[in-house]
Write a structure and sequence with these properties.
The protein is built from 17 helices and ten strands. It has a five-stranded parallel sheet with strand order 6-7-8-9-10. It has a three-stranded parallel sheet with strand order 3-4-5. Strands 1-2 form a two-stranded antiparallel sheet. By secondary structure, it is an alpha/beta fold. The chain has one domain: TIM Barrel.
Length: about 350
Amino acid sequence: MPNRRQFLTTVAGAAAGVCLAGHGLAAQAQTRRQVTVGGRRVRVIDVHNHWDMPIPAEIVKGTPFEEYMKGASFDDRVATLDKMGIDLAAVSVNDFWWWEAKDRGRARAICSHHNETLAKWHRAHPDRIVGMASVPLQFPDLAAEMLQEAVTKYGARGVTVGGHVNGESLSLPKFDPFWAKAAEMGELVFMHPNGSQNLLKEGALAGRGGLGNIVGNPLETTVFLSRLVFDGTFDKFPALKVCGAHGGGYLPSYLGRTEVACGRPNQNCIIKKKPSEYMRSQILADTMVFTADGLRHLVAEMGAGQVVFGTDIPFGWPVNVDYVVDHPALSNADKEAILGGNLMKLLRIGS
């Protein structure tokens, strides 16, 4: 099925290549950018930072997953962070293609490779890179077990998930063991979509403009977060914190419609609070809304304490620290929280 790997090589491949080329050898000769707010040095942490990690042949050889032996280089990532003024990246592997693996052993091996490899990069660059755990959510009990292992053995800071598991909503009770473990351990769950393929008929977003990414990704995030709210997942696990990629999808932009849903007849609502209360306590969003007014609105709906910095490196989107640092409507305290302060707490990053 079309995935983010294919998106990289088609729609964004050229842009990403230019971005990384500029951030690679050329950047090595440059000094590391340091970000200040109000004359004070602040730490910038990126929650939305990807690696298309290659998988060893012995894990996927002779399976439908052989294409994932290729992957992408990670060698110039620190140089990229230096140029962009990012002090630390929370790196995740996405697409979640391994959720299609029907063999528990293979699923475990793939996720173990992700988690072990990210741990090695963290050891090599302890103040620049941390890993977010990969887990096999098609086996919820194993996912919970591997989250525990990733954090305690490999030093993962949080865990990354997609918007659905082979078409199934993560708000279904079968996934509660995973949510329970994430809440118990206080691990931030970073959700990244894959084009709304679980929601739309084939070809619905085909054609000009890359709508599977531009429209499909935020749509998938919106539905994912809405189901966690309305199906009661956040009520079951009040300590759970979930960050929606790409500004939380469309949910913060049209929150008023969601807010009145349970006041209408025959909606079968079971939630204990208004949707806006979950948005200001358990749901977070990254800064990938691209404009100063978009960021202002995100903070107005969610509060600065629920917004975190994200770039989607290496996919070449026009996101940088400047539109946070130079924002005319945010206080210096808000800017510091968004750029890194919120994530220092959520990801257990020392000062």
